[in-house]
Every structure is written in structure tokens, then in C-alpha cells.
Design a protein that fits this description.
The complex is a heterodimer.
Chain A lengths: L1 H4 L14 H15 L2 H30 L1 H7 L8 H33 L1 H6 L5 H19 L1 H14 L4 H5 L1 H28 L3 H26 L9 H13 L10 H29 L1
Helix pairs in contact in A: 2-7, 3-4, 3-5, 3-8, 5-7, 5-10, 5-11, 5-12, 7-10, 8-10, 10-12, 10-13, 12-13
Chain B lengths: L1 E2 L5 E2 L3 E10 L2 E11 L3 E5 L6 H9 L6 E6 L2 E2 L4 H7 E4 L11 H11 L4 H14 L15 H13 L5 E5 L7 H16 L4 E6 L2 H7 L2 E6 L2 E7 H4 L2 E11 L3 H9 L3 E4 L5 E5 L7 H9 L3 E9 L2 H9 L2
Parallel strand pairs in B: 5-10, 5-11, 8-9, 9-10
Antiparallel strand pairs in B: 1-2, 3-4, 3-6, 6-7, 11-12, 13-15, 13-16, 14-15
Helix pairs in contact in B: 3-4, 3-5
Classes of the chains: A mainly alpha, B alpha/beta.
Chain lengths: 290, 314
């Protein structure tokens, strides 16, 4: 037999820390997602919104030079370079991202449960925490690519096309807002989709559960608010809670009729803790039954 | 320290002390204690005997409920990551990542075992060539045949050059040719490249071909551990007798002399159980009296199948 005649070489290099394995999981995970056509369709949708904003900012900068009145007319539209404008942009991007994650969750997490990818990973030199962190970072990277990075590009464009660089100096809160809202979206969505995909690994049930969670809870929150006229019912809408924290990061949250950012942070922190608990429990279970 | 086949002392490959494991209330491992020397070791038992549980405990994937032990000198409970970096595991289940190319999957296995990216990739190419998967290395792993998948799993287990391979049913699902090829490969890895391996299977033939030591598990207990040759029972009173010529009168004369005869499916051969006071010279006397020529009188030895059934009491 040929193969037993072939040479086998030993390897005696130095082994790296298992935390490097997280980066390997992120790289392979992103590679898996970008090979799916669904990703490119949804990314294309997100890109349309981004391109609209990008072109609008450029158009506005050009018109300001030629016709100031026309520029004031364009200010009626929301692309004003203010914190509220970026919050709305990121909210729209995050909606597309939620759709994307519904499919990516099945590829990244669900298939590991269905087809033994988790046993493949956990039987190497990494532990369950390295695996969990690697997968969470992969999802967070997807969220960042779709939400935070386009917002940062628009921020840089807006500042660069203004007459001076004063925009960057005058609006540090906008930069903090983009990074803060981006971080909230990345952390909450990655923990939630991991927890749901770990327990509902098949694609269709996962998509239904994930999207249903946002749509139904928001509907329930609105309905309860209408019945009871208590603004704290709005905390049930997880999606809106993230948006409120985002607007608070941008400094544009009006807390007079809606729950304060502190309440939203508390609710989301509880959801994140519960999600992490479900993830750890599920990873342990797979260690036993695989 | 335990003694090797050549009589020299070796550090044990695996040493377990009173190791138990429960799944809920079900005790899957019952205070198991043993030590085995490095080499090719078969882990044999019926379905549900506890083979896979033992492998997962040895790999550090699960913590034992009580007791402990060491593998390659690493503590099973405290040094799980270090341990897995030095062990290659080939699970029975498919355990691949769909959509990933063969070479990327093997390189990922190397990276997760602590290898730097470039070295893992280079080593993945080498190992895939060694296992004759070089022509399909760029194909997605879910498009591989069953035999290819088994080799791919072996490549992923070998990529970081582990000292010990844990193989869970490596020939499952293979056709006879693929099985033969896999067993030759495992034998070569163990004998030529000095790797220790623990081969878990319920196919005794696989163990007979590859391993020199065996661990026999039944219902969570270890029934026998050691070199297969040492465990086999040497029956002092049992012989295999072969001859040339008309043997019927010879066999009858043996019966008359108080020898128990067990007919063999092969002609001119029987298995005999002789009385305690028997002198082997009588075989030749009786053969000479009945005009047959004895070609073989060899003490009969237990085969692995008989050893296994004797130990599990069936």
C-alpha cells in the first residue's frame, strides 16, 4: 500500500496559547459566511442604505459650496451629521444585520451542534470558553462589519467633506455614540443568537424564533403600553432597548416618555447573562452526549 | 513505572486510580484503576460498555465524578488543555465542519491544538499527502466519501504530531479494502513512527492486527488489561494435532486412550484435550501403530475472541 510507504515527518514547534484558537475560529467562521449567497444579498441591502447616505453626504457637501439655500433644504432630510442621524442609520443597518444573523447563526452555531463541529473543536487543545469566545467574536465581527464600520466611514466622510476639520473636534460624542451603539449591538446580538442557535440549531426554526423574538416582543410592548399607559412596558421590546441605549450614547435620548437608558441597560444585561448561562449549559451538554 | 515487553521500565501512558463517572444516576465507569505502557492498545467492549466514555475521560473532555489519573504524565482533571494539545482524537461521529475545505479543516485542527497558522497549513498539506488525500485537499469536506472522511479525521488528529492517538471506531463504515488500508496505516503509525494509540472498537480482528496490548471493558468495569500474549490462556492439556494418511483409526485410538477429541472442519486435524498424566510421546506411538505420519502437535492457544468471551463470561 502506497500510503504506508510515504514519509511521516514529526513537528516539534512551540505551541501557542489556546486563546489564539479564538482567532482561528473567527477566521474560519467569517470564511464560511462570506461563501453563502444569502450573506451577499443581505449585505447588498445594507450596502444600498450605506451608499444612499454616502452619496447624500457628498451631494450636500457639493451643493453647500454652490447654493446655500438648497443646502438648508437638504437639511430637512435626516443625513445631518448629528448623533440622531447616525443612530437612525445604525438602527436601519442593525435591522438588516438581524436578518443576516438569523441565517448566519445556523451556519456558525447550529451546524456545529447538528454535524459535530463542536466535538471537532473541543477535542483539540482549546476549552469550552475559548470556543464560546471564538464564536461570539465571529458574530460580533459580522455585526461590526454591517453596522459600526459603515457608520464610521460616513462619519469620516462627513468630517472630511466639511470646510474644516472642526466637525471631528466639535462632535466627539458622535464618535463615542457610533462605537458605543456598535458595541451594544455586537454584544447583545451575538450572545442572543448564540444562545438561540445552540438550542434551536435548524435554520428555519432558528430564523422564526430569532425574528419572532424581536417582532412579537415589540408588538407586545406596544400593546401593553397602550392598555396600561406605563412606559416601562416598552422595556419588553429588546430591539428598541438597544436603540435607546444607542441614542443615549449619541446624547440624543429624550427620557421623558420612554424608560431611561439605565433601565434598558439593566434589561439587556439580564438578557445577556441569561443567554450566556444557556450557552454554557448547552456546550456542557454537548460534551456529554456527543 | 511499568515493565515493557523487553523488560525495561517505562512511565505509564495511562494511569487511572479509582476513576468513576456518572451520567445522572447511571454509573458509566465503576472505580476503574489500571496502568498501561506506551504502544498500540486496543480498547474493546460491547456497545454501551463504556469505551467512548473512557476515551472522553482520557481526552479530558469530561471530568470524572470521582477518582483521577494521568495520561502522558498530565493530570486528567487539572491539565485538560495541555493534555488535548498532546493527544490526537479521531471521533466515531462525523465531526467535521461543513463547507470547509479539507486542507483548511486539517490546518484549523492544528491551530486549535496550538500550532502557528503557517506551520499548521504546511503540516496539513504534509499529513494529507501522507494519507493520500492530496488530490482532494481543496474539496469541501462534506463532499468526501466515507473512507475519505475517516482519513480526513485521522489527518486532523495527526496534524499536530501528537504522542498519543485516541481512535474511536476508525474502521466504522469502511468497505473491506478501506478497512484493510486504514488498519495498515494505523499499524505503520504505531510501529514505524513510535506513536502510541488507543484503538476503541468492537471488532476484535482490528485489534488483533494493530495492537499488542488490550483493555477489555464491560458495563463500566475493566475486565482485563495487559499484553494480549500475557492475557491469553495457555492450555497445558490442549493440543492441535495434524497428520498425513488415513486418520480414523488413529483418532479412535486417541479416544480409547482417554483423550477428548474436538473435530476440526479441516481434514487431517483435530483439537485434543489430554488427561493430566498424559505423555506426549504417546501421540507418536499411536500414530506409528496406525500408519499415519504426524506433521504437527502444537499446544493450542486462546485467540482474542476466546479471551474476550472468557473475560466477559459469555
Amino acid at each position: 500500500m502506497q500510503l504506508t510507504q510515504a514519509g511521516y515527518r514529526t513537528w516539534d514547534g512551540e505551541r501557542r496559547s489556546p486563546w489564539w484558537g479564538c482567532w482561528s475560529l473567527v477566521r474560519v467562521g467569517l470564511m464560511l459566511i462570506v461563501r453563502r449567497w444569502v450573506f451577499w444579498i443581505l449585505l447588498g441591502l445594507g450596502l444600498l442604505n450605506f451608499l444612499f447616505h454616502f452619496a447624500f453626504i457628498y451631494l450636500k457637501a457639493t451643493i453647500v459650496v454652490q447654493n446655500a439655500n438648497m443646502a438648508r433644504f437638504l437639511d430637512n432630510y435626516k443625513v445631518t451629521g448629528s448623533g440622531q442621524a447616525y443612530a437612525d442609520f445604525m438602527f436601519a443597518q442593525a435591522t438588516i444585520c438581524a436578518l443576516l444573523l438569523a441565517f448566519a447563526g445556523s451556519t456558525l452555531i447550529g451546524s456545529d451542534y447538528r454535524q459535530g463541529g463542536m466535538v471537532f473543536c473541543l477535542s483539540r487543545g482549546i476549552g469550552k470558553w475559548h470556543y464560546i469566545v471564538g464564536k461570539l467574536l465571529t458574530i460580533a465581527a459580522v455585526v461590526t462589519i454591517v453596522t459600526t464600520i459603515p457608520a464610521l466611514i460616513l462619519f469620516i466622510e462627513y468630517g472630511t467633506l466639511s470646510n474644516s476639520f472642526a466637525y471631528f473636534i466639535d462632535n466627539p460624542r458622535v464618535l463615542c455614540g457610533i462605537l458605543g451603539y456598535g458595541a451594544v449591538l455586537a454584544v447583545v446580538q451575538s450572545l442572543m443568537i448564540f444562545a438561540i442557535a445552540a438550542w434551536v440549531p435548524r435554520t428555519v426554526p432558528l430564523v422564526m424564533t430569532w425574528l419572532g423574538l424581536f417582532v412579537l416582543l415589540k408588538g407586545l410592548a406596544d400593546a401593553m403600553r397602550a392598555i396600561d399607559d406605563n412606559r416601562y412596558w416598552l422595556l419588553l421590546g429588546i430591539w428598541d432597548d438597544m436603540h435607546r441605549i444607542g441614542r443615549w450614547c449619541f446624547g440624543s435620548l429624550d427620557e421623558s416618555t420612554i424608560p431611561s437608558a439605565g433601565w434598558c441597560v439593566t434589561v439587556l444585561a439580564a438578557i445577556c447573562a441569561a443567554s450566556l448561562g444557556l450557552i454554557v449549559r448547552r456546550v456542557k451538554a454537548v460534551e456529554v452526549v456527543s | 513505572m511499568i515493565e515493557s515487553s523487553t523488560g525495561s521500565s517505562l512511565s505509564p501512558l495511562v494511569e487511572l486510580n479509582g476513576l468513576s463517572h456518572f451520567y445522572g444516576k447511571f454509573q458509566a465507569m465503576k472505580e476503574v484503576s489500571f496502568a498501561v505502557a506506551p504502544g498500540a492498545i486496543g480498547l474493546v467492549g460491547q456497545n454501551g460498555a463504556g469505551k467512548s466514555t473512557l476515551l472522553k475521560l482520557l481526552l479530558g473532555l469530561m471530568r470524572p465524578t470521582s477518582g483521577g489519573g494521568s495520561v502522558l504524565g498530565c493530570d486528567l482533571v487539572r491539565e485538560q488543555h495541555l493534555l488535548r494539545g498532546r493527544i490526537g482524537f479521531m471521533p466515531e461521529a462525523e465531526s467535521l465542519i461543513p463547507g470547509v475545505r479539507g486542507v483548511d479543516l486539517v490546518a484549523l485542527a492544528g491551530e486549535l491544538s496550538g500550532m502557528p497558522r503557517q506551520q499548521a497549513l504546511r503540516r496539513a498539506h504534509e499529513v494529507l499527502s501522507y494519507l493520500e488525500l492530496d488530490e482532494v485537499r481543496y474539496r469541501k469536506c462534506d463532499e468526501y466519501s466515507v473512507g475519505m472522511k475517516q482519513r480526513l479525521k485521522l489527518a486532523a488528529a495527526l496534524v499536530h504530531d501528537p504522542q498519543l492517538l485516541l481512535l474511536d471506531e476508525p474502521t466504522a463504515g469502511l468497505d473491506p479494502q478501506g478497512r484493510d488500508s486504514m488498519l495498515r496505516l494505523l499499524h505503520a503509525i504505531a510501529s514505524r513512527h513510535g506513536k502510541s494509540l488507543i484503538l476503541s472498537t468492537h471488532l476484535l480482528g482490528d485489534i488483533d492486527r494493530v495492537c499488542e496490548q488490550v483493555i477489555i471493558v464491560d458495563r463500566g468495569s475493566i475486565l482485563g488489561v495487559g499484553r494480549i500474549g500475557d492475557l491469553r490462556q495457555h492450555w497445558r492439556n490442549r493440543f492441535r494435532v495434524r497428520w498425513r494418511g488415513e486418520g480414523t483409526p488413529f483418532v479412535q485410538s486417541l479416544r480409547d486412550a482417554g483423550v477428548a477429541i474436538e473435530e476440526s472442519p479441516r481434514p487431517e486435524q483435530v483439537l485434543v484435550d489430554v488427561p493430566a498424566d498424559w505423555n506426549n510421546g504417546r501421540f507418536f506411538e499411536l500414530a506409528s501403530q496406525h500408519g499415519v505420519t504426524l506433521s504437527d502437535v502444537v499446544p493450542e492457544e486462546e485467540d482474542l475472541q476466546q479471551l474476550y468471551h472468557r473475560l466477559i463470561g459469555s
